[in-house]
Amino acid sequence: MRLIRQSLSTERPQAAPVQEQSQVAELAAGLDLNMQDIPRAAPRYTPEDLEDIRGSLLSGIKQRNKEKSNAYSEFEKLHRGR
User: Fold this and answer.
1) Cα separation of 78 and 67, whole Å?
2) How far apart are the first and last CA of the chain?
3) Domain ranges (residues) in the chain
4) pLDDT tier at 81 (50, 70, 90 boundaries)?
5) pTM for the model
6) Which residue from 37, 64, 72, 74 has the fewest beta carbons nearer than 10 Å?
7) Sign (positive/negative) of CA torsion 26, 32, 35, 40?
């Protein structure tokens, strides 16, 4: 058992050396990252496009609800007389 433990302990990979914090801090200080300087892609939709989409969705929902309401009214009319 002792030989197995020794062989396993010698075969373990060694941890990679860790950079000192001062080196990391120096590298970070050299990089002046400003989020506003990063180029951004143009928006896919303009606010006007979004308003048009919203309006068409709402009108579609209203139309569907109106059709369902009319269908229910017709159903009630047909079945009241029975």
Assistant:
1) 17
2) 91
3) 46-82
4) low
5) 0.40
6) 37
7) negative
Give SS3 for 82: coil
Whole-number Å distance between alpha carbons of 10 and 57: 67
Could you give the maximum distance between any two Cα atoms of the chain, in Å? 95
Cα 16 from Cα 22, distance rounded (Å): 18
Whether 71 and 63 have beta carbons less than 8 Å apart is answered as no
- Spatial separation of the C-alpha atoms in residues 80 and 74, rounded to whole Å: 10
Q: What residues have CB less than 8 Å from 45, skipping those under 6 apart?
A: 53
pLDDT digits (tens, 9 = 90+) for 10-47: 655 555 455 556 666 666 666 656 667 778 888 888 88
